[in-house]
Write a structure and sequence with these properties.
alpha/beta, 281 residues
Length: 281
């Protein structure tokens, strides 16, 4: 059986669907999960990563675990407690969704130090482990959904700086392979999309998928910072803006891991926009 945390997120939801479609027995969990958001035959159990004890029913009888690193609540997690509960439930394999920032921003409290401490707990767990380090997600474009629907506008800073953002479905497929197949123990996979894309280009891709113009508005760093502070802690905002505006060569590197593991090229942002355009109509 596979236990999937963060099962209502962009990666977790796709992972649950992929495993269920392959005939796997899956228990899906998040704080707000319900039967309505999981495929038929998938068991869903509400639990909170911040409360490791709440995860016991999720992990009981599971062979492998997909562990998302907590997102905005990562600083509240006790990864060692989570992993101890997982081992007590019979879990012998863990796939961790971490962050590219562990390698590219090692001295950042939000992107490096915290994520690395969770990775280290996984590496010390005594279980077979695989770590996934994606860069930016294509689904971050959902931040434009309301403005595109209402005004056909999309605003972002650093309009013409490109990053190889990745489709969450590709991350989910890599996670499914690492959970299901042998040969991934002790591996760290750096996951990116197939090409650099800029905010302006991503807005154009959404416009193409809509079949209507979308006006791109380039924000100043201060304008973007004020907007992001409404839903992100300040250290995360500062590091994120630095990555967006002054990416390192490693953050702009297109890696081969998705194609090597899945036997095909990573999906494009344009393809993501076509599949999810309903959110922008």
């Amino acid at each position: 059986m596979f236990a999937v945390t963060g099962a209502t997120g962009n990666v977790g939801r796709s992972l649950v669907q992929a495993l269920a479609a392959a005939g796997a027995q899956v228990t899906a969990t998040s704080r707000g999960i319900s039967d309505a958001v999981v495929p038929e035959g998938v068991q869903c159990t509400q639990a909170d990563l911040v409360d490791a004890e709440s995860l016991r029913p999720v992990f009981d009888g599971a062979d492998a675990l997909f562990l998302q690193s907590g997102g905005p609540s990562a600083h509240l997690l006790s990864p060692q407690d989570i992993l101890d509960v997982a081992k007590a439930g019979g879990v012998g394999r863990v796939v961790l969704l971490s962050s590219q920032g562990v390698a590219t921003r090692p001295h950042s409290a939000s992107h490096g130090d915290l994520a690395r401490s969770i990775e280290e707990a996984v590496e010390r767990s005594g279980m077979d482990w695989t770590i996934l380090r994606p860069g930016g997600f294509n689904s971050n474009a959902y931040a434009w959904a309301e403005s595109v629907r209402a005004r056909r506008t999309a605003a972002a800073p650093f309009a013409d700086i490109g990053l190889p953002t990745i489709d969450p479905d590709d991350i989910a497929e890599v996670a499914a392979a690492a959970l299901w197949e042998d040969g991934h123990a002790g591996q760290i996979y750096e996951l990116t999309g197939p090409a650099l894309s800029t905010p302006r280009q991503r807005a154009e891709a959404i416009a193409d998928a809509l079949g209507e113009p979308v006006r791109f508005i380039e924000q100043t760093r201060d304008e973007a910072r004020a907007q992001m502070l409404q839903f992100m802690p300040e250290p995360v905002v500062e590091t994120t803006l630095t990555i967006l505006g002054e990416p390192t060569p490693a953050e702009q590197l297109i890696t081969p891991d998705v194609e090597r593991l899945l036997g095909r090229a990573p999906r494009t942002f344009a393809g993501w926009a076509q599949r999810h355009i309903g959110a922008f109509r």
